[in-house]
Design goal:
4-stranded antiparallel β-sheet; Aspartate Aminotransferase, domain 1; Aspartate Aminotransferase, domain 2; 386 residues; alpha/beta
């Protein structure tokens, strides 16, 4: 019976230390969370600037809902494209230095829509092997030829591009890799695009708001700009709200409006969210002190993790992965922290490669140095036990 087969598959995942389950948070996003009725110091959130519970964003959301209601009521191309959506798209395009922008419901939907709209049969997508799942799914759904290169291996990518003739070429990459915390060599990727007449799709979900001048993202961080770049970023991480956007040349945005199925056939996000995100953009632009504090916390954590038996991966971002290796060992380490009132999620395959199960420590500007010290002390205690 199909249900029996499903249960057997779940039992197998559990035996391999791969079964996933949810925990219920009953408090606003903050360093201190109430999880399943207990208080924890959390290092799990992507709320990198601590804006998700910011009073100005709460007020803006309330004002937006009071004026525009709750739901958009329809897709953007029917009657759901409301004034705050339009205002936010213009503001986002200007903020990241692109001619135009388009809102999507999530980063996942943005990636699915972009790739499917821009390439198809006879075209080729080149993808870093550590890209986010949404980019992997997008390239498969596009029906284009798919070529995956080893993580940040520019020589291998160059060889692949040289051997590819005919059709459109699209290089897809995370800007900040969500499980490793390192950054793609975007300037080198752009050089390859120029040499081989390719597009560069940059998923900056974990860089927008944190990297670059005034948090303008990874393109600003590397000081690059080109009509070849198609830029995507999410609005539910550093921006603290919800949704995503694509920024690119006007002709690319017009193509997405007409051909990106995950845009055309989806109800628009609530306009009140756009009102809140417009306020978030102002806080991001004025957030140099938040970003400086976050960098101080990153340095404190990295220095304090030296000498532990687990491998700290090279990362200068808020994502600090501590590789444990074995799935069950990662779960046990996460449980040991939880017993001490600290919540750090264990990340296991297939999210990360086999043998690289890890604790994915994420820092926020809302954390204090005392919070990081508490985490470090707990990890050193657990290192003695393990």
């Amino acid at each position: 019976m199909p249900l029996t087969e499903l249960q057997l598959q779940l039992d197998q995942r559990a035996a391999q230390g791969l079964l996933r389950s949810r925990r219920t948070v009953s408090s606003p996003q903050a360093p201190q969370l109430i999880v399943d009725g207990k208080s924890y110091l959390s290092f799990c959130s992507n709320d990198y600037l601590g804006l998700a519970n910011h009073p100005q964003l709460i007020a803006a959301l309330q004002q937006g809902a009071a004026h525009y209601g709750v739901g958009a009521g329809a897709a953007h191309l029917v009657s759901g494209h409301v004034a705050p959506h339009e205002q936010l798209e213009h503001a986002l395009a200007a903020f990241v230095g692109k001619p135009a922008a388009l809102l999507f419901s999530t980063g996942y939907m943005a990636n699915l829509g972009m790739v499917q709209a821009l390439v198809g049969r006879g075209d080729t997508v080149f993808a870093d092997k550590l890209n986010h799942a949404s980019l992997n799914d997008a390239m498969l759904l596009s029906r284009a030829n798919v070529k995956r290169y080893q993580h940040c291996d520019m020589a291998q990518l160059a060889a692949m591009l040289s051997r590819t003739t005919g059709g459109r070429k699209l290089i897809c990459t995370d800007a900040v890799f969500s499980m490793d915390g390192d950054m793609a060599p975007l300037a080198k990727l752009l050089t390859l695009c120029e040499a081989h007449d390719a597009w560069l799709l940059v998923d900056d979900a974990h860089g927008f708001g944190v990297s670059g001048c005034q948090g303008r993202g990874s393109l600003s961080h590397f000081g690059i700009a080109s009509p070849r770049i198609i830029y995507m970023a999410t609005l539910g991480k550093a921006a603290g709200v919800f949704g995503a956007f694509v920024a690119a040349e006007q002709v690319v945005i017009d193509t997405l409006i007409n051909n990106a199925r995950s845009y055309v056939y989806t109800t628009a996000t609530p306009p009140a969210l756009s009102v809140a995100t417009l306020q978030s953009l102002r806080l991001i632009a004025d957030g140099d002190e938040l970003r400086a504090h976050l960098q101080d916390l990153i340095a404190q954590l990295r220095e304090g993790l030296t000498g532990l038996p687990w491998q700290l991966m090279p990362s200068s971002t808020a994502i600090q992965p501590l590789v444990v290796g074995d799935n069950q060992a990662a779960l046990d380490l996460s449980a040991g922290l939880r017993e001490r009132g600290i919540w750090v999620a264990a990340i296991r395959p297939p999210t990360v490669p086999d043998g690289t199960a890890r604790l994915r420590i994420t820092l926020s500007a809302a954390h204090s140095t005392a919070d990081v010290t508490r985490l470090l002390e707990a990890l050193h205690e657990l290192a003695q036990e393990f």
